[in-house]
Amino acid sequence: MPRLRDLPSHVRHHIGWWVRDRFPNRKVVREVQGVKMVLPWPHRLPDYAGDGPYGQNLVQLASALAKESSPVTVLDVGANVGDSALQILDATDAQILCVEADPYFLEYLHLNVDADPRVAVVEALLTPDPTTEATTAVRTGGTTRFAEGDVGDALPTVTPDELRTRHPSFADLRLVKSDTDGYDVALVPAIAEAWGSAHPVLFFEYDHRLSRVAGNDPLAVWPRLKELGYRDVAVWDNGGQPLGRTTVDDIGARTAPLEEKAGIRAQTYWDVAVVHQDDAAGLAAVEQLVPASQRL
């Protein structure tokens, strides 16, 4: 019988995940890309991040925006355990509004950020539709999506307009990060509209498969953002490597890689940053990370 260390790395990972998944409530302290945080033992973040660029595009974008406006104000939707907030705060001066609706991850979010006065936590499901009733948290390896079901473990909802009204210190919001497993394509335009006068840079996970699982058309996001005045788009792969630049007009025709499948599942998703046409400083920040000469 082969020893564990002799198996391929992806096999070792899956065996390790299977073991760790048996202990969902075990708390561990991990250093992820130089930042210590409390995590549930099954969380995949340390495995995905390693010493590579995973997640650092968001941190670098926040740092670049802070050079023009410090502290940089950030809305972190789907804050999870607070890993994005912690890494941004470690890299630059920021004020962060974290929104999380899964009670399981909220425990870790509070453990990680409550001691920092620069962070505020909202325990609610952010949704563009005030009639949304998402009652069941579907958790997979360190992330959550919400669906209708019989288990009432999701928190009350809040709309982007209500969120802005309740948190006036974030009226001049500079950066939106959204990672909500398929709801981003519906939620991000609603956030952009609620903070329309601020023209925040929009950074979100763009996943065709999960968008459709959530009942959303992933291509519909681009004309909606165009209507709100957004134009330029920077794209990274799901490991944080830059792929290139495009526009809201052209990106829909370039999404074929997101439709490629291994078996029945899409192989990849993108991180995207979208900049308003009147936001010269935001465009300059994106240019530092993904130059316009690098076409998607």
TrEMBL record:
Is Transferase included in the keywords of this UniProt record? yes
InterPro entries attached here?
FkbM_mtfrase (IPR006342), SAM-dependent_MTases_sf (IPR029063)
**Record GO terms (molecular function):** methyltransferase activity
Any one of the GO BP annotations: methylation
Keywords assigned by UniProt, alphabetized:
Methyltransferase, Transferase
| Official protein name in the record | FkbM family methyltransferase
Q: Which organism is it from?
A: Nocardioides antri
